[in-house]
Every structure is written in structure tokens, then in C-alpha cells.
Amino acid sequence: MPDAPEAPDDNAPKSADAAPEMEITPRVENAQTRDELPYRLRQQALLGEFGRFAMQSRDLDQILQRAAELCAQGLEAPYAKVLEYTPEENTLEVRAGVGWAPGTIDVAALGADLESPAGYAYHTGQSVISNHLHEDARFRTPRLLADHGIKRAINVLIERGNEVAHPYGVLEVDSPDPGQFDRTDADFLAVFAGLLGIAIERQQADAKLANAIEYQALLTREMSHRVKNSLMAVVSLLRVQARSTHSEDIANALADASSRVETIAQVHDHLWRGDAISFIELGDFVGELCKKMNETTPALVITCTAEPLVLSADHAVPLGLLINELVTNAAKYAYPGGEGVITVSARKRGKNLEVEVSDQGVGLPEGFDLDQPRKSLGFRLITGFVRQLGGRLIVEKNTPSGARFTVEMPILDDDAVAQA
Fold first, then answer.
1. Model pTM?
2. What tens digit of pLDDT does each residue of 13-43 get?
3. Domains annotated on the chain, with CATH
4. pLDDT digits (tens, 9 = 90+) for 185-207
5. Distance between the two ends of the chain, CA-based, in angstroms?
6. Residue 214, CB half-sphere, CA atoms under 13 Å: how many?
7. Cα 112–95–25 angle (5° rounding)?
8. Inter-CA distances, 54 with 65, 168, 171, 195, 201, Å
């Protein structure tokens, strides 16, 4: 459980007149005094390293952890942590860090009141340096720091964009060793916190966008599901009407219409069930389409082979209707006796999709010309769907008998074509 915000008398008492001002401590010459120039150049290099890492990573936990590691290196301290503010509890929770005992990350929390060094930095926006934490009358020593023997600490605010309700939290570096953090160290840490704030803001914006996209996909699937159900209701009405009519021609026309509507319904069924919204897997779709058509013509055997390609819904609808018309045409005219085999195939040929429907029936009539005006609605629909897909239709006699209809259509840029 996170530590409750500490009472003001946890450690050293505060003077009533002590003002929570920034401590600026001059550098002290001693045996541990570093060579200043290499030390500052190292800090600049670490800032660049973190900037590159933050731009390349999409994992916020990794970014926070790397920030803590590099800040500890930059200030030559064994402890560092990233604190996230929780407004409901008014605490700063440890989200990443180095040097701390196991079970600290995502568990420990510090009080965010003004009597805490991190809390003061958070609420005032000022960098806080305390080189003698236990003797500092301005603040109490948080329990987490006291348990690890921390003697000096430096805290800076992690801000986000102006539109965010409150800053993210605090970046803190701590040391149990004697020494001095100075204003230049605070400046380094503040720049680091600025880079970290930008990275946090980007990650949270990405998360919001991902949630919005997921919600939009959910709405689109729900819409496709409802459209499919509505179309299937239309199919049922058409079939009822076909069974109730006394005209064979009207019954056949209604049956054809119900088959076309059902094909569109199948596209929407694949859309709401599929992983990629607005795209369908061609092999599954064509296979199910052939299965449905076989159920309506049990005397015929409709075989289907289709490569596992992914096709946009905009092209799946006319393509499904085209296959439906070609198979229906073969069922009507190729086998007057009502029995036979119709073969459907779909494959990728270079940059084109090739769809073929063939039979071993009576063959094409003499003088057959698809370009001549015809009374058949089915043939008019076939040529219309081919034009809509930007393809071309090749009609030829099959060997040794029957006919073969081949459609070659370009695979457009907005089709996500990939081998499954």
C-alpha cells in the first residue's frame, strides 16, 4: 500500500519562520570535486541520448525508467525516480526509478503537500535543492528517503501541454553521500524533465487516439452487423414473396434478387467479424459465397479455390455480386438437366486479381457476343460490375466442353493485399 502523506513531525521539525525558498549552495572544493567541463558535457550527451530514445520508443514505462537511469548517471547519484501526481489522493506515486528497494515502483507514494520537497516542487513549479535533507527546516524527510539513508535531494517539475488539467509529476534524484547539488544540476534536471514531459504528452495523445480509433472500429462493426441483419430481413421477405407468387418468372426474379441482396449481406457479415475493419479476407468470403449458392442449387456442385488475399469492402461488394451473377448464369444455362459442376477460382496475377468461373455444360451458343445488347439482366449486371471494378471480361469456350468467364481486375492502392 502507498505510504500515507507524512506528518510534519516525521523527522526534523520546521522553524515557524522558515520560508520555503530555493536553496542555492555554492560548489565545495573537496576530494570528490569533479572536473567540471567533462561532467557538464556528459550531462549534455545524456540529454541527447534520452531525446533519441524517447522519440523511438512507444512504451511509456520504458521511457520513464530510462529517464530515471540517465538522470542518476548525469548527477552521479545512486538513486532517481519519476513521480506521478494522483489528485484524488494528493500523493506522488513512484512510477519508475533506480536504486530503490524491490517493491517500491508502482507501490510507494510520497505526500504531495508543501512540506514535502517533491510536493513543494510540484505545487510551486520551482526546482528544489536540499543538500542537508535531515537538517533542512523547510521540509520533512519522506519515509522512503529516510529508509534509504538519503542525505541530499533535487526535485524538478514534469510539465505537460497547456491543455492538460495538471502537471504530470516530479523528477527527483537522491544521494546518501555527502556532496552538493547546485543550480546547474537543477538546470540539467529541468531540461531533462522538459523532454520527459513532451514524451509523456505524446504517449498520452497516442493512447487517446488509439482509444478513439478502437471506439470508431467498434461503431463500424456494429453498423455492419446491423446492416447485415437488415439485409437478411429483406432476403427473407423476398423469398416469402417468391413462394407466394403464382408466376414462375416473378418467382425466379425474386429469387435472383434475394441472392444478390444476400451477397451484399455476406460482405457486411465478414466486415463486422473480421480483424481489419473495412477489409475482408477474400478466400473465406468467396468460399462462403460458393457454399451459400450451393445450398440454393443442391443439384449442382460448386467448387471454390481462392488465394488468401485481403480486399477492401468497396471492391468486395461488386466482386461478390459479379461472382454471384456468373455462377447463377452458369447454373441457368450450362446445365439444362440441372446437374453439373461449376468451378470458381480467384488468384493474384502480378498486380491484377484474376477471377474465373467455368463449367462443363452445353457451351456458349453460336454467335455469342457479350458486347451486343442483350435482354438478360444478369449479363447487363455482369458487364456493369466489370466496369465498376475497372477490369475486363474474357469469355471463351472451355475444353472439351462448357464455357469459361475470366475477369481480370487491377488491385488498387487502397486494397490491403497480402498473403495471409
1. 0.52
2. 444 344 444 443 444 443 344 578 899 999 9
3. 36-207 (3.30.450.40), 277-410 (3.30.565.10)
4. 999 999 999 999 888 888 877 77
5. 48
6. 6
7. 55
8. 11, 16, 16, 8, 11
